[in-house]
């Protein structure tokens, strides 16, 4: 079984190598990706760190020490090419569903802010090119009040539970 990827999306060249792009307009709230039916596996933070260091960064954090990841190239799907942006057009619903935060026009790259799901101990240089680019993305970004306001309703379920504590 593979992840759901809207038929309105295609893989193409991106600033990050490959990315997902709208080939039809998407409405605010529209489901773009559902990883829950995907070929990935649930892995620990230690396993995720190992994959990340080897250049296989196709994962989404779903709990403090739990990631859903493509652990090898056979598990890699088109949906895994969603990239980060500090000015994203999509957010997270639940743990593994990606939805449009606003209307998305044809040709726009489909992006999320990794701060919506990441709380692990990492730091990534950001090259998204957005006017508001943070320069670096970390597992601490979700703690910032401005991020919590900006992405209200679009954080993964486990981070929403942390924010409410």
Number of domains: 1
The residue ranges in which pLDDT falls below 50 over 5 or more consecutive positions are none
Write down the secondary-structure element order.
EEEEEHEEEEEEEEHH
Q: What is the assigned CATH homologous superfamily?
A: SET domain
Number of strands: 13
Q: Radius of gyration in whole Å, from Cα?
A: 15 Å
Provide tags for this entry:
alpha+beta; 165 residues; 4-stranded mixed beta sheet
Task: Provide an overview of this structure.
The chain has 165 residues and is an alpha+beta fold. It has one domain: Beta-clip-like (Beta Complex). Helix content is 14%, strand content 30%. It is built from 3 helices and 13 strands, in the order βββββαββββββββαα. The chain has helices spanning 45-53, 145-150, 157-164, and strands spanning 4-5, 9-14, 17-22, 31-34, 41-43, 59-63, 66-69, 83-84, 90-93, 97-100, 109-112, 123-125, 136-138. The strands form 4 sheets. A 4-stranded antiparallel beta sheet has the order 1-4-10-9, with no helix packed on it. The chain has a 4-stranded mixed beta sheet with strand order 2-3-11-8, with no helix packed on it. A hairpin with a 2-residue loop joins strand 2 (9-14) and strand 3. It is globular. The N and C termini lie far apart (36 Å). The model has no long low-confidence stretch (mean pLDDT 94).
């Amino acid at each position: 079984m593979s992840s759901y990827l809207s038929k309105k999306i295609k893989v193409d060249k991106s600033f990050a190598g490959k990315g997902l792009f709208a080939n039809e307009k998407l409405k605010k709230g529209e489901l773009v990706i559902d990883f829950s039916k995907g070929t990935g596996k649930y892995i620990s933070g230690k396993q995720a760190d190992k994959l990340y260091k080897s250049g296989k960064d196709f994962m989404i954090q779903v709990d403090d020490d739990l990631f859903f990841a493509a652990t090898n190239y056979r598990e890699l799907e088109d949906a895994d090419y969603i990239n980060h942006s500090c000015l994203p057009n999509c957010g997270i619903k639940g743990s593994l569903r990606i939805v449009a935060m606003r209307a998305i026009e044809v040709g726009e790259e489909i992006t999320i802010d990794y701060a919506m799901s990441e709380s692990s101990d990492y730091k990534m240089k950001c090259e998204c090119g957005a006017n508001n680019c943070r320069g670096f993305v970390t597992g601490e970004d979700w703690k910032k009040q401005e991020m919590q306001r900006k992405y209200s309703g679009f954080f993964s379920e486990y981070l929403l539970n942390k924010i409410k504590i």
